[in-house]
Amino acid sequence: MTEGTTRLETFSDGIFAIAATLLVLEFSVQSSHDLSHELLHIWPSYLAYVTSFGTIGIIWMNHHHTVSLIDRTDRTMLFLNNLLLMSVAFLPFPTRLVADYLRRSGEKEAVLVYTATFVIMATCHGIWWLYARHGRRLIGTNVPDSALRAVDRAYVPGVPLYLLTFVVAFFSPLAAVFLTFAIAAFYLPSAALFDR
Fold it and tell me: Dihedral of CA 170/91/85/139: which sign?
């Protein structure tokens, strides 16, 4: 049994909004007479926040675009969507780990959890799309194949790039976080680029 995408979109939008909002709660400063020093000292929190918020925003934009190509859903698609949303909703936790441990003892473990979360998110999103797209199972009849190929091209680099950040985290946690930020920056204009 299939149904439209309205409920899937509504629930998804709520989860994306909550996860993005929770990220700001990861900021905290120690009681100090020198607030300006403390505000500078928590730069890992800013980096983790911008990277995580940007990634959630990009996933939301891609999710919105791909759902516009989907005409209907089924139970499997809803299940896959929930797996994707579960990984998105988890992101504030590793973001907090990076904010607390980057440039301190435990930074490698914190960044490994952080980058592994991105690998899982990218994998879930890719499987979600492949399921909807396979044999045009859930795709609208008016959607041209070129639009599907554009999404395919956008999704292909995701998992390998995030796997690279995971590997880099073993050697340089800070570089892995900056690489994750670079991936987010790469994906911002990707919709327009891949359409061409």
Answer: negative
